[in-house]
Amino acid sequence: MKLFSKLCLMLVMLVSAKLVSAIDRTQVVDDPNDVSPLLIGQAAPDIMLFDSEGAPFSLLEKISKQPTIIVFYRGGWCPFCNAQLSQLQDIQDELKDLGYQLLAISPDTPSELNKTSKDRELDYQLISDFQLKATRQFGLAFHIPNDYRDKVESIGGKTVRLAGDDKSTLPVPAVFVFDKDGIIQFQYANPNYKVRIEPELLLTAAKLALEKQ
């Protein structure tokens, strides 16, 4: 009976693993509630992004140097994102003492990142995903309605359209904690852009992730 139970459990795990691997996370969905973010235990994608100076770099290579916290935000035009960026600055020293590097990724261009960094007085790295490679590979991409796009642009924000797509795309705000092997140890993604992870909770998650290594 025990053998049968073990076989059933192994079968369930195998099927679950296949279902997870079969999900096309790069697909841009029309509802933020339908995104499929990368999960705990999955690896960071090997993609090229750009720093605030416009220089390309490998995300996977960057993560392999030390434990990393990656935060996805919608852009410097978003007041909820700016509030979160400032909160992250408040715990930046503690994260650094734990051995983490902090990267904040958005669809903003490098020049827009520079403005955000100066305006918010940030001393961690902002990363440009203006081609939406990271947004899609992390399973966070969703279309926004045209009327919302117009609202964003009316306040000076910019949205991104993929080639051949007539709709603009944004990332669902999210946080990922990686070990230096590039494996996710903690993940938080909320389709409600007004709700962000509390700094204290992120610190706790970061500490617990180190204990598992």
TrEMBL record:
| InterPro entries documented for this protein | AhpC/TSA, Peroxiredoxin_BCP/PrxQ, Thioredoxin-like_sf, Thioredoxin_domain
| Keywords of this entry | Antioxidant, Disulfide bond, Oxidoreductase, Peroxidase, Redox-active center, Signal
Q: Which GO terms describe its biological process?
A: cell redox homeostasis; cellular response to oxidative stress
Q: So what does this thing catalyse?
A: a hydroperoxide + [thioredoxin]-dithiol = an alcohol + [thioredoxin]-disulfide + H2O
- The signal peptide, as residue positions, is 1-22
Top-level class of the enzyme under EC nomenclature: oxidoreductase
Give the record's GO CC terms. cytoplasm
Which molecular-function annotations from GO does this UniProt entry contain?
A: thioredoxin peroxidase activity
Which PANTHER family does this entry report, sorted A to Z? SLL1159 PROTEIN, THIOREDOXIN-DEPENDENT PEROXIDE REDUCTASE
What does this chain do? Answer: Thiol-specific peroxidase that catalyzes the reduction of hydrogen peroxide and organic hydroperoxides to water and alcohols, respectively. Plays a role in cell protection against oxidative stress by detoxifying peroxides and as sensor of hydrogen peroxide-mediated signaling events.
Report what the protein is called: thioredoxin-dependent peroxiredoxin
Originating organism: Kangiella sediminilitoris
